[in-house]
């Protein structure tokens, strides 16, 4: 075989073979360098020289970055919003429903029996597998009044992205107190379970009735703490510590009700695959402030002082202030130090070339 091959080729001296080998090596090197250059193209080149990115540019950029594990992070995106009651969640979710067809994603409400906030053990594993394997629904935004659930306990490789909103604890409690009595403008004809009860929140506190007991504020902490029994023990120091840990380590973004637009803005900039157009819709549609309680009296100063003396309020407020500080920090880091340009990053000094 070797002799036949030698007869086909013209007579070549060793120096000719050496030159041919060098040409082959150089060609392979340049081909490899071009492929590496395309794979690790600096973000500054992808975003253009102006440094200004629209939401559409950011979406295109995220799709252009190679994923070497073959996982489509855009089309497999799952966002889980375990919404705390009376924090403005209805306004936010209705924007999601309005834009889901336009942005080509699904919105799914998690409805648990009797509005329970903790899933049973069989339901936990069923829910985790549904969310992870229900590919026809992806990209998806799941929402519901349920406590944080740690997906890593169930051998899940790609966990959903958690988001949430928190509200000043006394404001949330007062809103819920009057909501149970007077309802809201979202479903005005629905009779609430405390309808006809005319006692004000101030009178309730003076009379020490159960509906205004500070223990009723114990909700935001367990929602962030999770499914452990200790999370639902009012006044638990462990629960507060765990809630803070989860807020920082397990949640992509936690906003505050008082800064809903800023919350929407950060989501649209970060996850445009789902949240593109949320800012404009929030500003210009009638969905920016849904579910206004029909009748609500602000508490007087003596009521505020009485509530703030309770350990429950102090702990819930500590979580709120912690979340607010983290949210302000996140907003600040969006911009460069001059507060005029968005922060950017790029890859450089890549070796070997």
Question: Can you offer a commentary on this structure?
Answer:
Keywords: Disulfide bond, Glycoprotein, Golgi apparatus, Membrane, Signal-anchor, Transferase, Transmembrane, Transmembrane helix. The chain is of the alpha/beta class and 353 residues long. It is 48% helix and 7% strand. The protein has 15 helices and 5 strands. The protein has a 5-stranded parallel beta sheet, with helices on both faces. It is elongated. About 6% of the residues have low confidence.
Summarize the structure.
With 353 residues, the protein is an alpha/beta fold. It is 48% helix and 7% strand. Helix 6 (121-133) links the parallel strand 2 (106-109) and strand 3 (140-143).
Order of secondary-structure elements: HHHHEHEHEEHHHHEHHHHH
Question: Which value, in Å, is the CA radius of gyration?
Answer: 28 Å
Distance between the termini: 40 Å
- Report the count of strand segments: 5
Note the main sheet: 5 strands, parallel
Q: What structural class results from the helix and strand content? A: alpha/beta
Mean pLDDT: 84
Structural shape: elongated
Helix content: 40-55%
Low-confidence stretches: 34-55
Count up the helices.
Answer: 15
Strand content: 5-15%
Strand order of the largest sheet: 2-3-1-4-5
Keywords: Disulfide bond, Glycoprotein, Golgi apparatus, Membrane, Signal-anchor, Transferase, Transmembrane, Transmembrane helix
Protein name: Heparin sulfate O-sulfotransferase
Pfam families: Sulfotransfer_2
Family: Belongs to the sulfotransferase 3 family.
């Amino acid at each position: 075989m070797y002799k036949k091959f030698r007869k086909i080729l013209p007579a070549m001296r060793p120096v000719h073979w050496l030159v041919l080998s060098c040409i082959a090596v150089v060609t392979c090197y340049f081909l490899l360098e071009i492929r590496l250059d395309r794979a690790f193209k600096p973000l500054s080149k992808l975003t253009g020289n102006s440094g200004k990115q629209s939401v559409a540019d950011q979406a295109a950029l995220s799709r252009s970055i190679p994923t070497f594990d073959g996982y489509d992070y855009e089309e497999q995106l799952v966002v889980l919003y375990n919404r705390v009651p009376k924090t403005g969640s209805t306004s936010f979710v209705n924007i999601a429903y309005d834009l889901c067809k336009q942005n080509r994603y699904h919105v799914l409400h998690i409805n648990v029996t009797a509005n329970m906030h903790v899933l049973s053990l069989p339901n936990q594993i069923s829910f985790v597998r549904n969310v992870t394997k229900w590919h026809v629904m992806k990209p998806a935004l799941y929402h519901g009044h349920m406590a944080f659930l740690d997906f890593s306990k169930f051998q899940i490789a790609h966990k959903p992205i958690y988001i949430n909103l928190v509200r000043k604890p006394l404001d949330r409690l007062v809103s819920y107190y009057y909501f149970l009595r007077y309802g809201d403008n979202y479903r005005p004809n629905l009779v609430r379970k405390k309808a006809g009860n005319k006692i004000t929140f101030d009178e309730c506190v003076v009379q020490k009735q159960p509906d205004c007991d500070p223990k009723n504020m114990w909700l935001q902490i367990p929602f962030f703490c999770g499914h452990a029994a200790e999370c639902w023990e009012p006044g638990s120091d462990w629960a507060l510590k765990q809630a803070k840990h989860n807020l920082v380590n397990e949640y992509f973004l936690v906003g505050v009700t008082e800064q809903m637009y800023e919350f929407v803005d950060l989501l649209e900039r970060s996850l445009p695959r789902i949240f593109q157009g949320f800012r404009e819709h929030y500003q210009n549609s009638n969905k920016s402030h849904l579910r206004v309680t029909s009748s609500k009296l602000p508490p007087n100063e003596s009521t505020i002082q009485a509530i703030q003396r309770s350990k429950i309020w102090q702990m819930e407020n500590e979580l709120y202030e912690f979340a607010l500080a983290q949210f302000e920090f996140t907003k600040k880091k969006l911009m460069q130090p001059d507060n005029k340009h968005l922060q950017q990053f790029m890859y450089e000094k890549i070796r070997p070339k």
